[in-house]
Design brief:
With about 110 residues, the protein is mainly β. Helices cover about 5% and strands about 45% of the residues. The protein is built from 1 helix and 8 strands. A 5-stranded mixed β-sheet has the order 1-8-7-4-5, with helices on one face. A 3-stranded antiparallel β-sheet has the order 2-3-6, with no helix packed on it. Strand 4 and strand 5 form a beta hairpin.
């Protein structure tokens, strides 16, 4: 379920626990994002349930947000319609937000 982007993106950073990490796994919560760079889809895996995800372009515009997930701790985002470039993926797990740099390349 994808929610209203304006609402989800605007409320996403009310939590002040933001961690900036590399584009590899985050050792604090074992969040893994792959492939990076991505061409068609981006997979997010976590050992604990994911509470929210949002994707921002370099201008700071939220282009994707989702806050409803199953308990499996795995999410797939279709990025095939997004232009090539760098993005920031925010993943909320255990009340904390992990910000990771991702790249989309279409070849």
């Amino acid at each position: 379920v994808t929610h209203n982007l304006t609402h989800d993106c605007a409320t996403y950073f009310k939590n002040e626990n933001v961690f900036i990490t590399s584009n590899q796994s985050n050792n604090l919560r074992e969040t893994t994002i792959y492939p990076n760079p991505a061409t068609r889809e981006l997979n997010i895996q976590s050992e604990t349930p994911i509470e929210g995800i949002s994707l921002y372009n370099l201008l700071g515009k939220c282009i994707y947000a989702k806050t409803s997930f199953g308990p499996e701790g795995w999410v797939k985002i279709d990025v095939s319609n997004y232009p090539d470039g760098l993005y920031f993926l925010n993943v909320q797990v255990e009340g904390k937000i992990d910000v990771q740099k991702v790249e989309i390349i279409k070849n």
